[in-house]
Amino acid sequence: MINFKRQANAIKNCNKTNKTNKNAVIAEIKVHSPKYGDLLKQRNELDILKIYEEAGVVGISYITDKQYFNGDFDVFKEICKNTELPVLRKDFITKKAEIEKTAEAEASTVLLIPRILGEETAEFVDYANSCGLDTLVEVHNEQEIEIAKNTKTSMIGINNRDICKLELDDGTVSLTEKLANLIPKDRILVSESGISNLNDLNIALMYTDAVLVGTSFMKADFEIQKEFVKSFVGENYD
Ligand SMILES: O=P(O)(O)OC[C@@H](O)[C@@H](O)c1c[nH]c2ccccc12
């Protein structure tokens, strides 16, 4: 059973206007990065899922792109099957069939990128919604925000990195600071990429409802990974 808008609701239930003291952290199970290479390091994706769950994150992200991020759609399906948390599929989607495939995997959300889809973004958002999926529309500049605003997406992500540079740029939360006020308040706003410490996290959360973190969680040593993720979720979470 697909649960419409699970990801958006998970974030809404946890943002600053709510009573919980937990920060809304979406944690990415990122197996490879174009910059750092292998990030999985003999670990198992489902073990990392468990650690993220135990640390109290609100959602999981997984990149299915094979070419640059070494993702695997079968692993994505396993992740969806093994968690009650909302799961976001990250990929460079250009075909509606891929949206159907995402819904069939029982994901909750699909990433759509105006840099790739241009004005077709709105149509892809509608299509994803009709398949029972929530959408995260990812922007990196003002022009892309205009496209995102003309869609019915409930979530907009500011990608602090430029996807065209394939992560050879570091990504800085100052982009979130710069662009956040251009995004209407009725959308759930997520700051994505390059968030590597609590200082970055706190800056991002001054402007957004949630953060999405991959590399720094994956680079944390296995023994301390849960504590590290927990420190992002917040001390008051148990
Ligand atoms: O590893 P980071 O810097 O914490 O970033 C995670 C995530 O935002 C990044 O992986 C990402 C953002 N948009 C994407 C689009 C496709 C693939 C990957 C991505």
Automatic annotation (TrEMBL):
Transmembrane segments: none annotated. GO terms for molecular function: indole-3-glycerol-phosphate synthase activity. InterPro entries: Aldolase_TIM, Indole-3-glycerol_P_synth, Indole-3-glycerol_P_synth_dom, Indole-3-GlycerolPSynthase_CS, RibuloseP-bd_barrel. Pfam families: IGPS. Its EC number is 4.1.1.48. Keywords: Amino-acid biosynthesis, Aromatic amino acid biosynthesis, Decarboxylase, Lyase, Tryptophan biosynthesis. It catalyses: 1-(2-carboxyphenylamino)-1-deoxy-D-ribulose 5-phosphate + H(+) = (1S,2R)-1-C-(indol-3-yl)glycerol 3-phosphate + CO2 + H2O. Pathway: Amino-acid biosynthesis; L-tryptophan biosynthesis; L-tryptophan from chorismate: step 4/5. Residues 18-221 form the Indole-3-glycerol phosphate synthase domain. PANTHER family: INDOLE-3-GLYCEROL-PHOSPHATE SYNTHASE, TRYPTOPHAN BIOSYNTHESIS PROTEIN. Belongs to the TrpC family. This is Indole-3-glycerol phosphate synthase. It comes from Methanococcus voltae PS. The lineage of its organism: Archaea, Methanobacteriati, Methanobacteriota, Methanomada group, Methanococci.
